[in-house]
Amino acid sequence: MPAAWVDEVFETNRQRQYPRELLFSTVVELMSLVSLGLRPSLHAAARQMDNLPVSLAALYDKVSRTEPALL
Predict the structure, then answer these.
(1) What's the 3-state SS for 28-67?
(2) Domain residues for 18?
(3) Coil, strand, or helix at residue 50?
(4) Strand, coil or helix: 2
(5) 41-61 burial string, b = 16+ CB within 10 Å, else e?
(6) 39 in helix, strand or coil?
(7) Sign of the alpha-carbon dihedral angle for 34, 37, 40, 44
(8) Deepest of 27, 29, 47, 48, by most Cβ within 10 A of its Cβ?
(9) What is the pLDDT along the chain (71 residues), one digit of tens a residue?
(10) Count: domains in the chain
(11) What is the pTM of this model?
Protein backbone atom coordinates (compact mmCIF):
# COMPACT_ATOMS: atom_id res chain seq x y z
CA MET A 1 0.00 0.00 0.00
CA PRO A 2 1.33 3.44 -0.80
CA ALA A 3 2.41 5.30 2.35
CA ALA A 4 0.68 8.50 1.23
CA TRP A 5 -2.65 6.67 0.93
CA VAL A 6 -2.28 5.08 4.39
CA ASP A 7 -1.48 8.47 5.92
CA GLU A 8 -4.47 10.02 4.14
CA VAL A 9 -6.81 7.35 5.54
CA PHE A 10 -5.32 7.98 8.99
CA GLU A 11 -5.84 11.74 8.68
CA THR A 12 -9.44 11.28 7.54
CA ASN A 13 -10.40 8.87 10.33
CA ARG A 14 -8.32 9.88 13.34
CA GLN A 15 -9.95 11.57 16.29
CA ARG A 16 -7.30 12.05 18.98
CA GLN A 17 -4.06 10.80 17.46
CA TYR A 18 -1.65 12.91 15.49
CA PRO A 19 1.30 12.18 13.20
CA ARG A 20 4.01 14.31 14.79
CA GLU A 21 7.23 12.34 14.22
CA LEU A 22 6.01 8.81 13.57
CA LEU A 23 3.72 8.51 10.58
CA PHE A 24 0.90 5.98 10.71
CA SER A 25 2.19 4.50 7.45
CA THR A 26 5.44 3.62 9.22
CA VAL A 27 3.53 1.76 11.93
CA VAL A 28 1.52 -0.07 9.25
CA GLU A 29 4.70 -1.00 7.39
CA LEU A 30 6.32 -2.42 10.53
CA MET A 31 3.20 -4.32 11.62
CA SER A 32 2.82 -5.72 8.10
CA LEU A 33 6.32 -7.19 8.28
CA VAL A 34 5.36 -8.95 11.51
CA SER A 35 1.93 -10.06 10.26
CA LEU A 36 3.44 -11.58 7.12
CA GLY A 37 6.06 -13.43 9.15
CA LEU A 38 8.95 -11.49 7.63
CA ARG A 39 10.01 -10.31 11.10
CA PRO A 40 9.39 -12.20 14.35
CA SER A 41 8.30 -9.13 16.34
CA LEU A 42 7.64 -5.41 16.17
CA HIS A 43 10.91 -4.89 18.01
CA ALA A 44 12.84 -6.86 15.38
CA ALA A 45 11.12 -5.01 12.53
CA ALA A 46 11.89 -1.63 14.08
CA ARG A 47 15.54 -2.49 14.68
CA GLN A 48 15.93 -3.40 11.00
CA MET A 49 14.52 -0.03 9.91
CA ASP A 50 17.37 2.37 9.24
CA ASN A 51 15.44 5.60 9.61
CA LEU A 52 12.96 5.05 12.44
CA PRO A 53 12.37 8.62 13.65
CA VAL A 54 11.43 7.72 17.24
CA SER A 55 12.57 5.45 20.06
CA LEU A 56 11.26 1.91 20.44
CA ALA A 57 9.34 3.05 23.53
CA ALA A 58 7.59 5.76 21.48
CA LEU A 59 6.74 3.21 18.78
CA TYR A 60 5.19 0.81 21.29
CA ASP A 61 3.31 3.70 22.89
CA LYS A 62 1.88 4.71 19.50
CA VAL A 63 0.79 1.13 18.76
CA SER A 64 -0.81 0.64 22.17
CA ARG A 65 -2.76 3.89 21.86
CA THR A 66 -4.03 3.39 18.32
CA GLU A 67 -7.68 4.30 18.15
CA PRO A 68 -9.99 1.32 17.49
CA ALA A 69 -11.53 3.09 14.48
CA LEU A 70 -8.12 3.01 12.79
CA LEU A 71 -7.67 -0.72 13.19
Answers:
(1) HHHHHHHHCCCCCCHHHHHHHCCCCCCCHHHHHHHHHCCC
(2) 3-70
(3) coil
(4) coil
(5) ebeebbeeeeebeeeeeebee
(6) coil
(7) negative
(8) 27
(9) 899 999 999 999 999 888 889 999 999 999 999 999 999 999 999 999 999 999 999 999 999 999 887 76
(10) 1
(11) 0.87
